[in-house]
Amino acid sequence: MAALAAAVLVAGCGPTEGAQPPATAPTTSAPTTTDPTPSAAPARTVSVALAGDLLWHNTTWFSAQEDAHAKGQAGTDQYDFGPMFGSMGPVIKAADLAVCHEEVPVGPQGGPYSNYPSFAAPPQVAAGAAAAGYDLCTLGSNHSLDAGTAGITRTVADFRSAGIVTTGAYATEADSRTPAIYTTESGVKVAVVEAAYGLNGYQLPAERQWAVDRIDTGTMIAKARAARAAGADIVLAALHDGTEYTTAPTADQVANAKALAESGVIDLVYGHHAHTVQPWTKVGNTWVVYGLGNQIAQQKTEQSATYEGITARFTFHEAAPGRFEVTEATAIPTYVTHYAAGRPIRLVHVTAALDGSAPVPAGVERATLERARDRTLAAVRSLGVEGVTVG
Fold this sequence. Notes:
The chain is an alpha/beta fold. Helix content is about 25%, strand content about 25%. The protein has one domain: 4-Layer Sandwich (Purple Acid Phosphatase, chain A, domain 2). The protein has helices at about 60-70, 90-95, 125-130, 150-160, 175, 215-230, 250-260, 350-355, 365-380, and strands at about 10-15, 30-35, 45-55, 95-100, 135-140, 165, 180-185, 190-195, 235-240, 270, 280-285, 285-290, 295, 310-320, 325-335, 345-350, 390. It is globular, with a radius of gyration of 25 Å. The relative contact order is 0.13. InterPro entries: Capsule_synth_CapA, CW_Biosynth-Accessory, Metallo-depent_PP-like. Belongs to the CapA family. Pfam families: PGA_cap. This is Poly-gamma-glutamate synthesis protein (Capsule biosynthesis protein).
């Protein structure tokens, strides 16, 4: 909600009604006035929701096709990814800024599309993310070059056409040098800088080295400073890094997060890539989230932790004009259902499903949701962090 300026109060002094001046010294008092002093604008508060990987395996396409057909959208290239976000949709929409991570590039309209190990998802994933409520998406990942530089160009274009700000991978060199800043309804400007550890062995052309940001903390800090210079009030840094399917951060993750958090220009550091939830901690007063896990994916069934995730919600309060501090850190456990024909995938708000305030999709057992809650929250707290609430 946009911030409103406080009303200006003006004080004035004058003679008391009915009073008579002394007979011996008749005088006329000059009116006394005070200059109006505008009161300070109220401090602003901003909520930011951060989610893990959107990893579009082919069964997610089948699910989206079923949802499209259920709405009467006939045809083999009809996909509706919006319903897949399930009971997490209201959480995403409620945030002043919601940030997703698009793990894979999109293919051309009509295909061909490709599954693991080199992805090209249906381009309708962009409209699905927008329908879910996402405002900004990071694009830099080890899969960024799966469909070549043309895939990057398509992905940027499709997400921006859907109204989503993007960063981390770029269609033009000028874009790579332009800070990604989202302005909330209250006028707070939030920037995101993001980088990935590598590109799965693919090589960027020599003339397009700018197309994907690779992790270099000096470069990321320089980008954060550029965002501040461009007017950003808050800067978030995202690292696509870590060892897959583990809950412990690597030495590189720890060192990189420390460098970013201690830079003085970054307000929060978070990560994705491991496909499993990793710990939260603080470096000084700066929050660090090592890994959010997957948000939507369909990895091997036996890798059960990859169906679990955390959506992080941070509330920033304006402690002084233009200076924001985190006043609330909330971990929201999620679970994504397995696809089966006739049973489309749904992302589940685990806490809400367990307390009865959100539906439990058919075929999902309460014990599965309890395990997702317990396992993800144990990972979040595994370094002993305090001050995290559960949403």
